[in-house]
Structures are given as structure tokens and as C-alpha cells.
Specification:
- The protein has 154 residues and is α/β, with parallel strands linked by helices.
- The protein has 4 helices and 5 strands; from the N terminus they run E-H-E-H-E-H-E-E-H.
- It has a 5-stranded parallel β-sheet with strand order 3-2-1-4-5, covered by helices on one side.
- Strand 2, helix 2 and strand 3 form a beta-alpha-beta unit.
- The longest helix has 15 residues.
- It is globular, with a radius of gyration of 14 Å.
- 37% of the residues are buried.
């Protein structure tokens, strides 16, 4: 199994759409990443690390959009929950992921996020695919994620 910690703003949307909408093209890139990962892993687990997880309406919209975009169409791509919210916003994203991993240890994981705060501090830089917030997830980011996942698989 491989786990993807998923941010929304700056990953599934860009500065032009920030907080307003999820870009369907970015959802398709996430879906393609998941399907490609299934070539090497039995299960792809998606854990929401975005601030969207703390707002029930935003969380429902996110999960609905991922479902409608086909991300969970394959039964081996599963929703794994959400990271804990420490109340300190994105400045502690690395810590929140670290806390989640302490409760649910995983050897193999990727982090899709436009913010790298806390990633190095908690030893997760190699797992982090840093997206450009003005663009969001790109094909190059997907390729980078697959290269990182390939390192874990070997």
C-alpha cells in the first residue's frame, strides 16, 4: 500500500481558483497518478491533509468531486481519512502528517502539497512533491511522484 497525503489549494486548484473550486483537470491528474501507482502497489490510500478537511461543507465537496472525477472508481483506491488539525493552519502541515503517521504507521507515502513547511523538520522532504500554487498539480508533478514511489518500491 502507498498513502497519498493530499492538499487541495495549490494542488487541485491554483491561485486563480483558490478556495473557490476544484479544477476537474487536476482531479484527472490525481486519478492518473493513482492508477499508475496501482501497477506497483495493491492499494492507494488518500488521506486529506488540506485545510478543507476542517470545514464539513468543503470536505463533502472535495470527496464528492474526487468521487465524480473517478478517483475512487477503482476499489483499490481508498479514502484513508484525514490528518489531525492542530489549529495552527498550514504552518504545521508537516507536523499534522507526522502525527497521523505516528498513529497509523506507513513506510510508503507521498505528500502532494504546495507548502513545504515542516516537511524537512519531520524527515519527509523526499516524500514531498511540491506543487506550484499558481498552477496546481501538473503532469511533471505526477511524473515526480511516480519516481519517488518507484524508489520506495525497489
Amino acid at each position: 500500500m502507498i498513502t497519498i497525503f493530499l492538499d487541495v489549494d495549490g494542488v487541485l486548484n491554483s491561485n486563480t481558483l483558490r478556495q473557490l473550486a476544484i479544477d476537474p483537470a487536476k482531479v484527472q491528474l490525481l486519478r492518473q497518478l493513482c492508477l499508475a501507482l496501482l501497477r506497483a502497489y495493491v492499494t492507494v490510500e488518500i488521506v486529506i491533509s488540506s485545510s478543507w478537511r476542517v470545514d464539513p461543507d468543503a470536505r463533502r465537496e472535495l470527496l464528492r468531486t474526487l468521487e465524480q472525477g473517478g478517483v475512487f472508481r477503482n476499489p483499490n483506491v481508498v479514502f484513508g481519512g484525514m490528518t489531525p488539525f492542530t489549529g495552527e493552519g498550514t504552518h504545521n502541515r508537516g507536523r499534522e502528517i507526522f502525527y497521523w503517521l505516528r498513529q497509523s504507521p506507513r513506510d510508503t507515502f507521498l505528500i502532494l502539497d504546495d507548502d513545504d513547511t515542516g516537511m524537512a523538520q519531520y524527515g519527509m522532504s523526499v516524500n514531498h512533491i511540491k506543487t506550484d500554487p499558481t498552477v496546481g498539480l501538473t503532469k511533471d508533478d505526477v511524473e515526480s511522484a511516480l519516481k519517488v514511489a518507484d524508489i520506495f518500491f525497489r
